[in-house]
Amino acid sequence: MSLNVFWDNSNIWLVGKNYCSLKEPGHEREFRVHFKKLLMSVVDGRQMEFAFVGGSLPPNNDVLWSYFDNLGVKVEVQERGAIGGGEVAVDQAIQYSMLKRLIDADAPGTILLLTGDGNGHLDGEGFIPALKRAVKMGWNIEVASWDLGCNRHLRQYAEEHGVYRSLEPSYEHITFLAGGRNAL
User: Fold this and answer.
1) I want to staple 176 with a disulfide (CB 3.0 to 4.6 A). Which of 60, 126, 170, 183 is the partner?
2) What pTM, to 2 d.p., does this model score?
3) Which has the minimum average pLDDT: 113-122, 141-150, 155-164?
4) Does pLDDT of 85 surpass 60?
């Protein structure tokens, strides 16, 4: 079964930074996400087929990109600011990529979504309706998010129809402080 990762990096980074203010107060400016370790943590040894990364992107020299290359994973990116409308446009680009994947894949697989954003669901917009379409089409769904900032409706939907993974237990493993603590 194919694993398809959709990563809202701006959401993951921003809420992670907020969690840093609780775990390591005063170090929010040094807070960083270790992108490769985050990906490895949520993928958990499974073979990825596709990934879409949206938002504020890791630098070109980050080990994440070579990791994707070594795995032979097709990666699409949408950098924040590259399209009009800011954060909403990035979310829509991620959702559009998810929907294309649902339609174009040879068979249903697993959608792994890294975000906590559940905005728009009451209007039939956003990540929750996209996940509902995936489930309706026979896909497995997983959401990995910081509990601190995860929309309660998104979390509830993931728990009821798939898997929800909290990032807090992995905080020290998937984050580091620039000039300070390394990721474990």
Assistant:
1) 183
2) 0.88
3) 113-122
4) no
Here the tokens at position 156 are 């509830």
Distance CA 12, CA 31 (A): 12
Which tokens belong to 33? 């996400």
Whole-number Å distance between alpha carbons of 183 and 24? 14
Please name the residue that has the structure tokens 């509990």. 147
Helix (H/G/I), strand (E/B), else coil: 148: helix
Gap between the Cα atoms of 108 and 3, Å rounded: 10
Length of the chain: 184
Contact between residue 143 and residue 113 where contact means Cβ atoms under 8 Å apart? yes
Helices (H), the chain: 9-23, 35-43, 63-71, 86-104, 127-136, 152-161, 171-174
Over range 143-147, report the average pLDDT.
Answer: 98
Cα separation, 57 vs 151, whole angstroms: 22
Q: Please compute the mean of the pLDDT values over residues 137-159 and round it to a whole number.
A: 97
Under DSSP, the state recorded for 170 is G
Q: Which two tokens stand for residue 48?
A: 């990825």
CA separation for the pair 147, 165 (Å, rounded)? 9
Query: Cα separations (Å) of 124 from 77, 121, 131?
Result: 24, 5, 11
Does an H or E element contain 8, and which?
strand 3-8
